[in-house]
Design brief:
With 100 residues, the protein is mostly helical. The chain has one domain. Helices cover 80% and strands 0% of the residues. The protein is rod-shaped and about 75 Å long. The mean pLDDT is 94.
Length: 100
């Protein structure tokens, strides 16, 4: 139907998109948790001498920024899931109102 200008919207399809985003969200969340647990178990292997302190000055903020970025990704995906579910609900309400 290449020439068909019709558009078909399905609230179930919209909800499906939201549910499919759960997998990358869970994967990212698991990766973050695993990474943080592994780093925690290592402690501070760079030591507390002058070289270790210089290393930590660069490493620790970068590690914290990376962890925050991954948390933001997880939250962003949750926002998309919520938005798709809300869009589907709003579509259902609109369709029901239009049918009356």
């Amino acid at each position: 139907m290449a020439g068909d200008p019709s558009i078909f919207i399905s609230s179930g399809g919209i909800r499906l998109v939201g549910s499919l985003l759960k997998t990358p969200q869970d994967t990212t969340s698991y990766a973050l948790t695993t990474w943080e647990n592994n780093l925690y178990s290592l402690g501070s292997p760079w030591g507390d001498d002058q070289i270790g302190e210089k290393f930590a000055e660069r490493y620790v903020p970068s590690q914290q920024n990376t962890a925050q970025a991954l948390r933001d990704v997880v939250a962003g995906i949750q926002g998309l899931i919520d938005d798709f579910n809300l869009m589907a609900s709003n579509y259902d309400v609109t369709e029901q109102a239009n049918s009356q």
